[in-house]
Design goal:
The chain is an alpha+beta fold. 56% of the residues lie in helices and 16% in strands. The protein is rod-shaped and about 145 Å long.
Length: 267
């Protein structure tokens, strides 16, 4: 009797355990089912996001490549335009340079023609308005020779010429030498440095290669200065008074003055 009761109790306990186990399994199934569904949903969303990201990267890459290609084409076009402009500018500069050289050559030619015409006009009329020298002076080559009124010591003559931006007469080459000989000058100071030694005279031909005076200072009390007398050069005390002749650079002949000085062919 007692064994049957014990068996019955054990059976009841086993039955209770099975029910509890079944209930527990059902609960676990109920709990695990929603969690699995949420995880699958999250994975799906992440997958979609990755696909969208890949698509976006692809689209951006395509846009970047297209933009880069367009910009490269524009850059190449701009480079071509730049090179073409540079070539055109270089050609224009060369053209302008050639024109400038031609203009300079024509200007020099016109200046030479005007100078030659002015010399011819000056031979006929020594005071023609095209003359590039002060009034009363003589024009020879590129120099003007002016004879000043009155007499002066050598030092005074130097100062008088300097005040006119000129110098005393210098015979520096054979052409000027021949010109001075033709003028038959008598008693004119020369721009030769004063000398302590006295000589009676030398020919003008002997001194044109001499060292000429260039604004040096001298103690003139006991020195000799030289003057021209026809084709000879004489020595005289520097404080003696002689005639002053100044030499200065001639200005350029003005083309307008030559044209205005030509006779009117319509008359």
């Amino acid at each position: 009797m007692s064994e049957e009761i014990v068996y019955a109790n054990l059976k009841i306990q086993d039955s209770d355990k099975k029910e509890e186990t079944q209930k527990s399994d059902k609960c676990e199934e109920k709990v695990s089912s929603p969690a699995s569904h949420s995880w699958q949903k999250a994975v799906l969303i992440l997958t979609l996001l990755c696909l969208l990201l890949l698509i976006g990267v692809g689209v951006l890459g395509g846009i970047f490549y297209t933009t880069l290609e367009t910009e490269m084409m524009k850059s190449n076009q701009l480079q071509s335009v730049k090179e073409e402009l540079q070539e055109n500018v270089s050609l224009q500069l060369m053209h302008n340079l050639n024109n400038s050289k031609k203009i300079m050559n024509l200007t020099a030619m016109l200046q030479n023609i005007a100078t030659q015409l002015c010399r011819e006009l000056n031979n006929k009329n020594p005071e023609h308005k095209c003359k590039p020298c002060p009034k009363g002076s003589k024009w020879y080559k590129d120099s003007c020779y002016s004879i000043l009124k009155g007499y002066a010591t050598w030092q005074e003559s130097v100062s008088l010429c300097s005040a006119r931006n000129a110098s005393l007469l210098k015979v520096k080459d054979k052409d000027v030498l021949e010109f001075m000989k033709s003028q038959r000058l008598s008693g004119y100071w020369l721009a030769l440095p004063p000398s302590k030694e006295y000589r009676s005279s030398v020919t003008l031909s002997e001194i044109f290669l001499s060292e000429w005076f260039e604004k040096n200072t001298y103690d003139l009390n006991s020195m000799y200065c030289r003057y021209i007398n026809d084709i000879y050069v004489y020595y005289e005390r520097c404080y003696v008074q002689k005639i002053t002749i100044c030499e200065e650079t001639a200005s350029k002949v003005q083309v307008e003055s030559v044209l205005n000085g030509l006779p009117d062919s319509s008359k």
